[in-house]
Design a protein that fits this description.
This protein has helices at residues 21-29, 54-58, 76-86, 91-104, 120-132, 150-165, 177-180, and strands spanning 10-14, 40-41, 44-45, 61-64, 138-142, 169-173, 186-191, 194-198. By secondary structure, it is α/β, with parallel strands linked by helices.
């Protein structure tokens, strides 16, 4: 398959269960290496990039997992700030950004609560906020509406659309036809190792 993700673009990745949508997202996130073929990210051939350089490149890509991957012992604020904390940044340099981002995703009142207290939609929004901490050029979302009701799915979709309007390319992997029908966007359909693209 040959395809590209244009800058500032918005697209859905769909296809039957087991088609390889999550695998394709992992390849784009550089957490999985292709056994053959070439992947160019940001103008570079990934096979030629030293392993030590991958974390820096990965910061330009945000990813939202279907299962949220929030740490249960950390508050919403701490989960969202974690990528920066792990890199040793001073909290004073990012505290206001984390708070503003949490307000933007509608979690301004839930900053100091643990994940166990959050609803599915709130956990998903926290995961989105964490993925946005590095202001990525591409955001990959794996079934982001799979665990929420239709009104929350629409709210999440609006967040992704707003993010795209601000300049981030967005790829949403989903089975949700109703969700896709709400937006006139590019569709990439993965079936049996082929990728068909409908603009």
């Amino acid at each position: 398959m040959t395809f590209d993700i244009p800058k500032r673009s918005f697209q859905f990745l769909t296809g039957p269960s087991g088609a390889g949508k999550t695998t394709l997202l992992r390849l784009l996130f550089m957490s999985l290496h292709p056994t053959r073929g070439i992947i160019h990210m940001f103008g570079r051939d990934l096979s030629q990039i030293p392993r030590a350089e991958l974390p820096m490149l990965r910061r330009r890509v945000g990813i939202v997992f279907q299962d949220f991957r929030l740490l249960d012992h950390l508050t919403t604020y701490e989960n969202v700030a974690l990528p920066l904390r792990v890199r040793g940044k001073e909290e004073s340099s990012y505290r206001n950004d984390v708070i503003e981002l949490l307000k933007w995703v509608g979690l301004g009142e839930r900053i100091n609560v643990l994940p166990a207290v959050l609803s599915g939609g709130e956990k998903q929004r926290a995961a989105i906020a964490r993925a946005l901490m590095d202001q990525p050029e591409i955001l990959l979302a794996d079934e982001p509406t799979g665990n929420v009701d239709p009104p929350m799915a629409r709210r999440l979709l609006n967040l992704f659309l707003e993010l795209n309007r601000l300049g981030t390319a967005v790829v949403i992997a989903t089975h949700d036809l109703a969700l896709m029908d709400q937006v006139d966007a590019r569709r990439m359909i993965l079936t049996e190792g082929r990728l068909d693209i409908y603009e």
